């Protein structure tokens, strides 16, 4: 039997790919995790775990990105202020505050689609 959450995940992914294009440099789907340090980020600002910020390997600091949790459909906009993630298969690391708003703090990681605004 196919679950509602499986259907929802497929629909969210399909819609994101149709809207942003699978090969777009400004859109991607993949894994996301969260972190909550109190040290300085790669941009030089102090990490604020409750802020809506994120780490990305290549996007310029200050870029705004809409991130959608594929498992529950929740979306937020985050600002890139750090570099990472450094784990294969992950496309973004989010602050704990962002992960909380997306509903995956307890899981530690989730599948997302993101698009640069």
What this model shows, in words?
The chain is globular and about 45 Å long. With 117 residues, the protein is an alpha/beta fold. The protein is built from 2 helices and 6 strands; from the N terminus they run αβββββαβ.
Order of helices and strands: HEEEEEHE
Poorly predicted regions: 16-24
Helix content: 10-25%
**Outline type:** globular
Structural class: alpha/beta
What oligomeric state is this? Answer: single chain
> Counting H and I runs of at least 4 residues, what is the number of helices?
2
Radius of gyration from CA coordinates: 14 Å
Q: How many extended strands?
A: 6
Strand content: 25-35%
Largest sheet: 6 strands, mixed, barrel
Instruction: Determine the N-to-C terminus distance.
Output: 37 Å
| Mean pLDDT across every amino acid position | 85
Strand order, largest beta sheet: 1-5-2-4-3-6
């Amino acid at each position: 039997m196919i679950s509602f959450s499986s259907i929802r995940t497929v629909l969210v992914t399909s819609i994101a790919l149709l809207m942003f294009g699978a090969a777009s440099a400004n859109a991607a789907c993949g894994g996301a995790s969260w972190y909550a340090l109190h040290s300085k980020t790669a941009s030089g600002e102090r990490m604020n775990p409750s802020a809506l910020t994120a780490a990305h390997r290549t996007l310029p600091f200050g870029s705004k990105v809409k991130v959608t949790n594929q498992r529950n459909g929740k979306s937020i906009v985050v600002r890139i202020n750090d570099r990472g993630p450094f784990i294969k298969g992950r496309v973004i690391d989010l602050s704990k505050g962002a992960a909380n708003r997306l509903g995956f703090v307890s899981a530690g990681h989730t599948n997302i689609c993101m698009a640069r605004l």
